[in-house]
Amino acid sequence: MNVVALDIGGTNTRIARVSERLNIEEEIEIKSGKSLEQLTKSIIEHIKKMMNKETKKIGIAVAGAVDYKEKILKKSPNLPFLNNFSFFKLEEEIHLPLFLENDANAAAFGASRRFKLPHIIYITLGTGIGGGIIIDNRILRGYQGYAGEIGHITVMSFGKRCTCGNRGCLEAYIGGWALQREINKKWENKTVKDLFDLAKGDKRAWKMVQQFSVFLGIGVASLINIFNPQALIFGGKMSYSWPCFYNKMKEVVKRRTYLSSGVKFIRDSLPDKAGLLGMAHIALEG
């Protein structure tokens, strides 16, 4: 048996066929696009290409507030054209059981299994800032199922406008889209990855990365104070730049936490595949 797992992000979508033993047999990456019709048509086409006779389930991880029981994406700040979209439509088209989950919840679920840690918080550092909270080996969902929106913790009252409509969200300071906006004001044709590379020798870049680290530390400290996790695990593309921000982040966390001794800070060794593998875990376990 195998499953086809998808990780739909604000910029790119990954699609993979994953074996029962959680080996990725085949994988592709496509652009998420800018319209509902474009994205749904593309992912249905690629799912069907990826499927074989051993494929029994489909698992879809997506950035945003997910009603996993009804299979509806309620709200996605970075994929607004998917707001209130029912993934039952895809299930009907593909004719296989489909599981839907928030991308960071999926990554957190998979990471808790891989690292064998029952109490973790998973933070995705990408176009948006996502979060998944695992307590006693279970996803913490909250009353309506939308718990874990770490990127929308307020870190600055009356601060910068976020894509969710609020002001001062953590994501508005450290999300990939927010960093890119600031980068464009200072450099031409530079990316977020370039920013972290530049920080090793450019004072302006170093200052931006320091600010990133401080705001990340503020958010992480709040999470530790509330949830008392065993570990915080960091994924997403920006986690590759871990050496650039880890020490400053940890320094801020130490200053701002009530009791943080024993908490582990881990960079996921599979940050690009965490959503896919986590979603495969969820689909396989049903």
- CATH fold-level label of the largest domain: Nucleotidyltransferase, domain 5
What is the overall pLDDT average?
A: 93
Helix content: 25-40%
Helix segment tally: 9
End-to-end Cα distance, whole Å, is 13 Å
Name the structural class: alpha/beta
Q: Give a count of the beta strands, DSSP E runs of length 2 or more.
A: 13
Low-pLDDT stretches are none
- Oligomer type: single chain
CATH architecture grouping of the largest domain: 2-Layer Sandwich
From the spread of the alpha carbons, the general shape counts as globular
The spatial strand order of the largest sheet comes to 3-2-1-4-8
CATH superfamily of the largest domain: ATPase, nucleotide binding domain
Name of the top-level CATH class of the largest domain: Alpha Beta
Q: What count of structural domains? A: 2
Question: Could you give a short account of the major beta sheet?
Answer: 5 strands, mixed
Q: Give the topology string: H per helix, E per strand.
A: EEEHEEEEHEHEEEHHHHEHEH
Instruction: Report the sheet-strand fraction.
Output: 15-25%
Radius of gyration: 18 Å
List the helices and strands and how they pair.
Elements: E1 2-8, E2 12-19, E3 24-31, H1 36-50, E4 55-62, E5 65-67, E6 72-75, E7 85-86, H2 88-94, E8 98-102, H3 103-115, E9 120-125, E10 129-135, E11 138-139, H4 171-174, H5 176-186, H6 192-198, H7 203-227, E12 231-235, H8 242-256, E13 264-267, H9 274-285
Parallel strand pairs: 1-4, 4-8, 9-12, 12-13
Antiparallel strand pairs: 1-2, 2-3, 5-6, 6-7, 9-10, 10-11
